[in-house]
Design brief:
CATH architecture: 2-Layer Sandwich
Strand content: 15-25%
Helix content: 40-55%
Strand order of the largest sheet: 3-2-5-4
Shape: globular
Number of strands: 6
Largest sheet: 4 strands, antiparallel
Length: 144
């Protein structure tokens, strides 16, 4: 059965990441995208730097399109830079190897991606994990 993320699940994911960041005194942006890397929801928390929304989008799209965390994509990009350039030329936004992008997987199927930007790299990953947990507890809905 085909599954998809919906706006309610995207909101839960973003809220979980922002809440986790705020507990640590950080302000971040969170992007939730569908399986094709298109925005479902982008949130820039009060006080998050202006550029973090775009970075979060790139992280989320990379995770969704490649089906792996952004840090895992760095192995491909480093090992095969010409291939990474060809892949990147076919995407918008550009793909990134920056930490903080995770795929959303439901029943073994990638249904989207989440990107977080604005804190230290390891914290962006932690907040993205909180977002994935928030969306997976809601689960994706059957495609209508």
């Amino acid at each position: 059965m085909a599954v998809r993320l919906d706006s309610a699940a995207a909101r839960l994911a973003a809220d979980a990441a922002v809440e986790a960041a705020r507990r640590d005194g950080n302000r971040v942006s969170v992007a939730v995208v569908d399986v094709r890397g298109h925005d479902l929801l982008v949130v820039r928390d009060d006080g998050a730097a202006w550029f973090t929304a775009g970075v979060a989008r790139a992280k989320a799209a990379t995770a969704a399109l490649m089906g792996i965390p952004t840090t895992a994509y760095s192995g491909l990009a480093d090992g095969y830079p010409a291939l990474a350039d060809l892949i990147d030329a076919q995407t918008a936004p550009s793909l990134t190897t920056l930490p903080g992008g995770l795929p959303v997987v439901v029943d073994g199927e990638v249904v989207g991606g989440i990107g977080v930007s604005g804190a230290q790299p390891e914290q962006d990953v932690e907040y993205a994990k909180a977002a994935v947990a928030g969306v997976v507890t809601r689960a994706a809905l059957p495609h209508r």
